[in-house]
User: Fold this.
Amino acid sequence: MSNPVEIYDTTLRDGSQGLGISFSVLDKLRIAERLDGFGVHYIEGGWPGSNPKDIEFFDEAKRRTFRNARLAAFGATRRKGVTAAEDDQVRLLIDAETPVVTIVGKTSLLHVREVLQTTPQENLAMIADTIAFLKTQGRFVVYDAEHSFDGYKEDSEYALATLAAAERAGADVVVLCDTNGGSIPAEVVEITKLVRARIAARIGIHTHDDIGLGVANALAALDAGATHVQGTINGIGERTGNCNLTSVIPNLAFKFKRSSVPGESLVMLKEMSQFVDEIANMRPNPRLPWVGAAAFSHKGGQHVNAVQKLVRSYEHIDPALVGNSRHVLMSELAGRSNIIMKARELGFDVNKETPELNAMLQRVKALEHEGYEFEAADGSLALLIRHTLAHETKPFVVDAYHVSMRSDGKSSVCEATVKVVVGTDQAHTVAEGDGPVNALDGALRSALLKFYRRDLEDVRLTDYKVRIVNSSSGTAARTRVLIESSDGTSTWTTIGVDENIIEASLQALVDSLEYGLLRKAFAADVAAT
Ligand SMILES: [Zn+2]
Assistant:
């Protein structure tokens, strides 16, 4: 690994502009801490001049120490006609007390004239004064040249003059920004090279993904002489998002052989990605390259067969290198090899000679025909395989249940009663909930806690999804319920299908808790293989 690249994370500033994203101050602090541990070089915390929340973030951040990353406050060049020291928005950057300040300025003449409504000379002065002032205050200054590529295409000499003004004033990094996200790699390469020849300062790249080229453009610029890259975790950001660092970082390490974050952080990449989704309250995108749940998933007989023979045959890299894992997807196409591989992934010792193999396959096919879908329901599939192989009695059986609802016009409440049999014992419990499934979950859980407190007390239902499926023509519509559960360290998904939503939910709930009870046995099996 040589030719290192600096990672500048702007998840907390540009990323927070994304659709549906709203980070609290505490959220931002948690993400910043995590990014620091992960080893990015800079964390852009926000724009103190744009909102009080970001001022509060920087106040809180003053009391923390970052081990790896340097914190950056973001702002714009001074207003026209005032000195930088007089500009309130610039003062707030000083008050943020960060070691790094990032300043965005205009590169495009069109924007200078139409948006700033000032002269080309005054814009150059605004860039130079602001940077020079920040340098007198002892800051490391990153200069973000807005619309670098569009501005260059419009008037290359003026664009270069803005960059030269930034450099002369003392900017430590000059960052070329594809603000509108419409550039293509060939242009990015050409312009980055031309800038490289004229500017001695470190060159950075900041791209957006409007035409799906955010990552490609950033990597192209890094190939053409840039050594600093700005982006966000999972590519969150306004419109279609920013350059995705969860793609840039592994590409640099594994494809370009260039170092960025510490080598030992790469195995935490998927975790970093999931953490930001969790804080942003977004469902993870399974199709994200490198870190998505589907990034190393295999479906269809031929691939699975080959993967089983030679794991690398259908994978560009070992998923474990980025903390991801291989998955085999079940489907109606599922052949013997799929089921064997899935069973092995779940920790069972199964091969072509296993006598129960055929029964397992028939059972999966029959259930899929009824509308079950095991691709996302690893927990239920693990139980199905275990029941076929182990011939053991179930840890509990729901003998009977009753759900009712009453409403007084203003509010309504559901009540569930369940009778659970565990060996020769029984429990009969009642619970109320804000919906029938919630009540049923409460009743079932309180019954089982009597027998299995230690194993179940930290198991929680974390997601509940309902979909209507038409299993096959001529039958009534069925409801498919998927329940995701977690014990804080691992998660599992279970499924139920029925014409009645309560019955489907109960099946998924029963599987969720049964898997919860047996999960340690599964984990032990997995460890042993
Ligand atoms: Zn941006």
